[in-house]
Amino acid sequence: MGFLHLHVASSTSFKPETSLQAKRSCPYTVIIKTSCSSTTFTRDQISLAYGDAFGNEVYAKRLDNPASRTFERCSSDKFEINGPCTRNICYLNLLRNGSDGWKPEFVKIYGPHANTVSFNFNTFLPNRVWFGHNLCRGVSAP
After folding, report:
1. In CA terms, which of 30, 77, 85, 101 is 20 to 30 Å from 122?
2. Can you give the residue range of the structural domain that contains 115?
C-alpha cells in the first residue's frame, strides 16, 4: 500500500461558512483501491475533491506519483490529506487526465468529524471530466 501526505487548501466557494469548524484544518485518511481489471498501472494525473452539503470541500490537485507506483492494478493506496473540516461527507469526485486509463474500485474516507464513507466506482474514469457521486440531495442544514 502506497502512502503519501498531502496538504490542501479549500476550494473557492460562494456558500457562506456555517460554523467555526469550517475554518479549521482537519486530517483525513483516504484509501483508494484500484480495480483488478484496471490497466496494469497508470501515469495519468489523478485529482480528488470531496465534501459535505454545507459547502466545505477538500481538494487534492494531484494524488498520482508514478515513481512511487500509485494506482497499480489490484493495489490500495493510502493518502493522508489535511483540509477544511467537513461534517458528513456526501460527495466525491475524481478527475483523470492522461492516456493510460484507470479504473478505481472504491474510495474510502476516514475523517475526525464524520463517519467513514465509501464510494464505489468499479468503472473506467472518463478523461478530463470530473466523475463521481453526489449523495447530498435531501440533506438539510441545521
Report:
1. 85
2. 2-12+22-58+76-95+107-134
From 52, 21, 49, 10, select the one nearest 141 (Cα to Cα): 52
Determine, yes or no, domain membership for 63. Answer: no
Please report whether residue 126 resides in a domain. yes
CA angle 38, 43, 49 (to 5 degrees): 80
In the predicted model, is pLDDT for residue 16 greater than 60? no
Between 100 and 139, the more confident residue is 100
